[in-house]
Amino acid sequence: QVHVVESGGGLAQAGGSLKLSCVASGRTFSGLSMAWFRQPPGKGREFVAAISWTGEITHYADSVKGRFTVSRDNAKNTLYLQMNNLKPEDSAAYYCNSVRGDYRTPVDSFGQGTHLIVSS
């Protein structure tokens, strides 16, 4: 089981930037593929971005490609999501989780998440 704590959310303006962090503990972070998911108000949880344990492979949802960048620091057991050119439709609760080899299927229970509101 990997325990995660997400942070960095808040209120942002459209066109602005924000960086989310996810600190993990439990299983060896450096050996895990990790991903960000989000759940907009009233909607289901959706995949946002994923990264291999080496950081060499990344995947993005079409809706964020070119605007968001996922990265990690294995020495700090931390996953990041740099979000640029934010849009109101990016407003959601953001969660991180370890994922299976398909980079989409979450492995562990989701944490509390961090909330982002983007105003137009």
SSE topology sketch:
Elements lengths: L1 E6 L2 E4 L4 E9 L6 E7 L6 E6 L6 E3 L7 E6 L4 E6 L8 E8 L14 E6 L1
Parallel strand pairs: 2-10
Antiparallel strand pairs: 1-3, 3-8, 4-5, 4-9, 5-6, 7-8, 9-10
Summarize the structure in words:
There is one protein chain. This protein is mainly beta and 120 residues long. 0% of the residues lie in helices and 51% in strands. The chain has no helices and ten strands. The strands form two sheets. Strands 2-10-9-4-5-6 form a six-stranded mixed β-sheet, with no helix packed on it. Strands 1-3-8-7 form a four-stranded antiparallel β-sheet, with no helix packed on it. A hairpin with a 6-residue loop joins strand 5 and strand 6. It is globular, with a radius of gyration of 13 Å.
Q: Key terms for this structure?
A:
120 residues; six-stranded mixed beta sheet; four-stranded antiparallel beta sheet; 10 strands
**Beginning-to-end CA distance, first to last residue:** 38 Å
Low-confidence stretches: none
Major sheet, described briefly? 6 strands, mixed
What class, by secondary structure content?
Answer: mainly beta
- Characterize the overall form: globular
The succession of helices and strands, N to C, reads EEEEEEEEEE
Q: Which range does the strand content fall in? A: over 45%
The value of Rg in angstroms is 13 Å
Oligomer: single chain
Strand order of the largest sheet: 2-10-9-4-5-6
Number of strands: 10
Instruction: Specify the number of helices.
Output: 0
Helix content: under 10%
Mean pLDDT: 96
